Structure formats: C-alpha cells, structure tokens
What does this fold into?
Amino acid sequence: MKSHLHNIPTHIITGFLGVGKTTAILSLLHSKPPHEQWAILVNEFGEIGVDGTVLTIDHKDRGGVSIQEVPGGCLCCAASVPLKVALNTLLKQSQPDRLLIEPTGLGHPKQIISALSQPEYHSVLNLRATLTLVDARKVSDPRYRDHPTFQQQLTIADLIVANKSDLYHEDELERLQQYLSDLGLDSTPVHPVAHGAIDPKWLDLPHHNREKSAPVEFCTTRSTEQEKQNSCVTAEQFTSQGWQFDHSRPFQFDCIRTLLSQLKVIRMKAVILTERGGFLFNRIDDQLSIVEHSPVTESRIELIDQDATRWDSLHEQLNNCLIEE
It folds into this structure.
C-alpha cells in the first residue's frame, strides 16, 4: 500500500440475512461530511449482486462515495484473497477518508477482522468498532437463533444494533437481551433503532480485539457452467440463485410483482426495471416491500433459501414477465 494511505477509520457493519445492513449504510451516507471521500466494500452471498447496485443508484449523483463489490460470498473465506484484491484496489482508487465494509449476511466477521489486522494494513487501516445489526424478532426462530453464523456475528460485536425496533412487540427486546445473556454477552452495549438509523458517533467507538469463538471457515461452491444471467452459490446450508437482465428487456410490473410476491423464500432482493420505472423488491420471510427506486439500468434478482428445488421453473416464469421486444 502507498504511504499516503494512512490510519483510515475502518468499520465492519454485519448482521444476518435481511436485517437491514444496506439501509443502515445508506443512513450513514446521508450523514457523510460533504468534503470527505468514503469507500464501501460490499460482499453478497450470491454471484448477482443487488446491494452494491442499490448503493450506487442512491449515491451516484451525490459524489464522495466509492463502492466495490465482491460477489459469491468469498469476502469471508479464510484465505481472504478476493478481500485483499478488492480492498487494495478500492483504497488506491478512492483514497478514502473512511472505509465501510458490509459482509454478506451469512459471513463470519471474525475472519474479516483477522485479514484487516495483517501487518500490511497496520499503518493503513484504523479498525474501529464492529457493529452487528440484529432483528430481535428473529430470536424466537430456531433457523436464526441456533445458526452458528447468527451467533458469531453477535459474539464478535463491539456494539449491537437492534434494528427494526419500531416493529417489535413488548417483550421482544427483552427476549433479545436474555438471548445475549445466554451467549455471555451481557457487557456488549445494545441500541434499539428503527430504519437502520445508526448514530454516526458509534463509528468511532474503539474496536476490542477480544478472543471469542473460533472462526468457522466460510467458503462457497458455485456453478462455473451457468451463464451470468442465471448463477448459483451454495454454502452454510443455504443456496442462492440469481438472475440478471439488461435494460433492453424491462419487466411488466404487474406480472413481476405477482411472481415475486408468491415466492416462499427466506430472503429475496431485486432491483427491477419495468415499464413504470425502477423498483426495489425486498423480502425477508413473509414480509415483502416494494419501493420505487429509479433510475435502474438493469434488473437483478437474488433469492436465498435452504430449499432451491422449487426454483426449477422460475427462470421460465421470469422470462414470461419480460416485455416483448
């Protein structure tokens, strides 16, 4: 690394699937001082990235933000080669005043912290507090509560952000506190927020290099034969399927809305170009939101679930929703 890249405040913002990490980063970007250059390194579980596209669309006319994507879950591999290549490129090109790293919701932040703590980055990066977002409502669901990645993300946190607190029932925050106590995390501060509204002051809290749970290697297997339009990644008992369509083939809004509304998946993210403009489709479990999100130059769809067999006919269904050329 070049010598003029020195002591860059670096923040890992992690959390399980659908907890609102991208929304939180968007909230932070709105508080960015105009004179500062920020860099964002985004990793997604699937090969077809959506979060980086959302961040780019939101901030392409604002300036002062550089975004680099690492697809396919490989940001958290023990070898961390994709992480280092993407990180070095991002730092050299953007010369940032601050660096934000968003791992995939199925990623292990401890391995990222280990990579960032290597001697080559000692004078370059100033690692600050790891912020872990969690939805307290998921603590009652064993798919989340008992998942080792869900637990490790909380265990490694310097500060826990209980996101979507405006949707909690009366006892759900207390259940989260009890769950954290059971994990031995009574001393980790917890801050309830709504809509990913992270306080910018939390970014400059110190990082505590605590030896906690041993890391679990996270690497993916992916199809090398499928085209980019239809790619698959499998790891952590989850499978991701993704599709990409260029701007020449927009979707019929009513058709794609009906199709995506009927999907039964743990996680679905999509940026869709339609005859009505661009839209962001966001589904976690049974909750689906649709938000206008123009301009959109291409459509990207990513699904994550533990059972991908039901997706066998989905590619044809997606094609049927495209507007005829």
Remarks:
- The chain is about 25% helix and 25% strand.
- The domain at 223-320 is CATH 3.30.1220.10 (Hypothetical Protein Yjia; Chain: A;domain 2).
- The longest strand covers residues 8-15.
- Confidence is low (pLDDT under 50) at residues 211-228.
